[in-house]
Amino acid sequence: MPEPTNAPPDVAEPALVPDGHGPEAAARPLGEAAPLGPRSVTTSASLLVTLLLLTAMVFLRVPYAVSSPGPTRDTLGEHDGVPLIEVDGTQTYPSTGELRLTTVSVAGGPGFPITVPQAVAAWISGERTARPVEVVFPPDVTQDQLDERNQAEMTSSQESATVAALEELGYDVPADLLVAGTVEGTGAEGVLEEDDVVLTFEGASVTSYTQLVEALDATEPGATVRLGLRRDGDPLDVEVVTGEREGGGTQLGVFIDPQFDLPVDVTIRIEDIGGPSAGLMFALGIVDRLTPQDEVDGEVVAGTGTMDVDGSVGPIGGIQQKLLGARRDGADWFLAPAGNCDAVVGHVPDGLRVVRVATLAEGRAAIEAIGAGDGDALPTCTAG
């Protein structure tokens, strides 16, 4: 039997742990804080600096502009209880479909720089794009100047869309063809003057901008043409050597500011959107309002494109964001300018069908075909 003992029960000795590195490190009791070594101090300082840098980056401004899908508006409908298009002076007709203009929202314009996180989020987003601000906006322009320019372009776009729509419907839209200036290096320089009014072309009266364009289209570049003018109230004949327009065709070498005399009163009310890219959808909205046919017949058609008074549809910027915005707001069809087709291919959202148009007449035919259920036969954008 084990011998009895009066020894006290076992008491655990304080555990010893190394305080430092290596076998020579001094032992310290468990739970006692170790003094910071050089490596710990360096790591802590690095983490603090990194945190401060990350915090600063959140507020750091960068010279980039971010484009994202903007709002759409139905040119056949109302916004804030006000019709976008109103026509007085002739009969109008109801519509059951939608013709939606599309927009791009841009952050990072002059005076409103974006932050690093905003730029990074755009770079990794499938819906937004970030580009150097100088690529998106003219240099040395203020936000006020930009707003004024966008509003002026919108006003001009509405006028051109109205004229093109009325002429598409067979109206005569007379105009005084006022010379706003001449193109440097052309035959018109030094021959025509600002505020001249063009009255005739090769002896034939020109009373509309479309007539002048058609006359030029029938003229070979380099030909000398005779113009009848009104200068300071007096008649005057001059001769001008025409030139070749960039992209083909004949140019007169003058800037024309047509003063239109509209046969009906068309009012387009839209205050929060600028730029010229809604011209096509404005023109189609006017056509739909003034014809008894319900062109889109319940379909939702979106689109974009500038509109010249002769009915030509021009390309615009940001079409990929506009495609996304159109689909987001319920559009099944999208009218795209022929000049934007390269940017459309490969970027069409699921469920959206794109139709290529180059003129207002093509756009009108497209919405009529879509409303009739024949949209699948319409031309689309293809690679190359």
Automatic annotation (TrEMBL):
Ranges for domain PDZ: 189-240
GO-annotated biological processes: protein catabolic process; proteolysis
Molecular function terms from GO: ATP binding; ATP-dependent peptidase activity; serine-type endopeptidase activity
InterPro entries: Lon_proteolytic, Lon_Prtase, PDZ, PDZ_sf, Ribosomal_Su5_D2-typ_SF, Ribsml_uS5_D2-typ_fold_subgr
Chain positions covered by the region annotation Disordered: 1-35
Transmembrane segments: none
Gene3D superfamilies found in the cross-reference section: 2.30.42.10, 3.30.230.10
Domain Lon proteolytic: 275-353
Protein name (Swiss-Prot/TrEMBL): Endopeptidase La
Organism: Cellulomonas aerilata
Upper classification of the organism: Bacteria, Bacillati, Actinomycetota, Actinomycetes, Micrococcales
